[in-house]
Amino acid sequence: MAVAASAGTVLVPHRLLTTTNVTRCSALPYLPPRLSSSPFLKQQLSESRKFSLHQTRASSSEETSTSLDTNELFTDLKEKWDALENKSTVLLYGGGGLVAVWLSSILVGAINSVLLLPKIMELVGLGYTGWFVYRYLLFKSSRKELATDIDALKKKIAGTE
């Protein structure tokens, strides 16, 4: 019995830090922190700097090609606002939309705090997604049906039907 107990014991020599007198009682050996003078780290830092330069160049050339004229945007919005006849209705609908988004955010937060309900809602969402793919996207005839339903909805919203 004493032999089995001594065979299971592992002795690890204690290492002392040079700056403080702290002993480590761990089965893992002490590893010194990495120094920034290692050639591998220098190479990695220089490559990351090159990568960030490439990113900056790509984004700066993209910005110049797709920049918007803010004055044109504001004048266009001002013209559309002046063309509206019933501004109070637009403000009322906009405010109602903001309140609806705020209330739905509160509702989602409350549902998310219930213990198992978020996982059940994920399963319901996955099930509905699977049904939608099977019903509308899997076969060519059902894709055509979905396209006609979408076109009919567009016409109904636009008022051309």
TrEMBL record:
UniProt-listed InterPro entries: CAAD_dom (IPR025564), CURT1 (IPR033344)
Cellular component aspect of the GO annotation: membrane; thylakoid
Highest rank taxon of the organism: Eukaryota
Protein name (record): Cyanobacterial aminoacyl-tRNA synthetase CAAD domain-containing protein
Entry keyword set: Membrane, Transmembrane, Transmembrane helix
Main location: membrane
Pfam families: CAAD
Signal peptide, first to last residue: none
Domain Cyanobacterial aminoacyl-tRNA synthetase CAAD: 76-159
Compartments, record wording: Membrane
Bilayer disposition of the protein: Multi-pass membrane protein
PANTHER family the UniProt entry points to: PROTEIN CURVATURE THYLAKOID 1A, CHLOROPLASTIC, PTHR33222
Segments crossing the lipid bilayer: 90-114, 120-138
